[in-house]
Amino acid sequence: DVLSRLVYGARISQSVSVVGILVTGALGSLVGLVAGFYGGWTEAVLMRLVDVSLSLPGILIAVLLSVAFEPSFTNVIIVVIFLLWPSYARLTRGETLGLKQQDFVALARTAGCSNRTIMFRHIVPNLIPSILVLATLHVGYVIVLEAALSFLGVGIPPPTPSWGVMVADGLGLIEQAWWVSILPGVAILVTVLSLNILGYWVRDRL
Q1: How far apart are alpha carbons 186 and 193 in whole angstroms?
Q2: 159: cis peptide before it, omega within 30°?
Q3: Tell me, what's the pLDDT at 90?
Q4: Distance (Å, rounded) from C-alpha 161 to C-alpha 167?
Q5: For residue 203, how many other CB atoms are within 10 A of its CB?
Q6: pTM of this prediction?
Q7: Is residue 147 packed enough to be buried (19+ CB in 10 Å), middle (13-18) or exposed (0-12)?
């Protein structure tokens, strides 16, 4: 029934957002940290990769993946990573460029700390609030992205009750049974709106 699929679909959407953002945040933040800390050609190469990733359309990548492989949870995660990691890389690079000029970094160098220690013990803790805010704001975006991919048939494959799949399944019944499509759409709306409000609150608090 629609209610049980709606409840189970919430688990799918939240799983995609949590797994995707954890992997994306870790990968993008590491790239930005290395680029900002070392600078030079390392920064130039990594940031050009960011520019290339930003120039490629995510929906096209999802369609290509669906052609090469069967639509799956893994494909959706790959698309999420591909689309979002540049945001974390740019954020952490900018923050790292400022943090590495601070006195506590100079004192750590004077104390004989290695680059790895300075990066992960002294700089990363100062990056966490900004990364957390961005991740919170991205949760809603990932839920909408997963729903859009599933709606187009290149995301979570049926009969798994993703919210996007449920919206697509109800299109042919919209005049006879409007709730089949409308209710998962409302669930997406309420969830994303709530998470965005939470993200703004976290941003203000941090």
Answers
A1: 10
A2: yes
A3: 92
A4: 10
A5: 15
A6: 0.84
A7: buried
